[in-house]
Amino acid sequence: MNPEILIVALIIIGIIGRSPIIATAASFLLILKLTQLERFFPSVERRGLEIGLLFLTIAVLVPFASGRITAKEIFTVFTSAPGILAIVGGVIATYMNGKGLDLLKMDPQMIIGLVIGSIIGIVFFRGIPVGPLMAAGITALLLKIFHWVGS
Asked: Where are the transmembrane segments (predicted)?
């Protein structure tokens, strides 16, 4: 199948599914392709996730930098059940992200299923595609469960 047609289909899916992130990302890639700037694809593929995570982390840290989070609020995190659960959630998430990265290193074609699953999650379940590594981590967990149940 012609890559341009696939990208246009993703733009249409993004528009129909009211997902500006998918539509914009696919449009960006189509522009690179149509302007013969495909030579940047490997860099975008290699560094795009890091850059996206950088901006996501910056957005999350803005309240610290702006002073909207006080020392009292930080102390509360360590002394309240929701705060402690948030810490545990952060630990589990980063652990799962590491397992996802391991899975993608061992089985790079797994990204195809993750991308399709992410598109389905965005379009039909109003999900937000912020965690390809988390998606891979969950996939690694599901594979472990599948192998455990299947053996």
From this structure: 6-32, 53-71, 77-98, 110-127
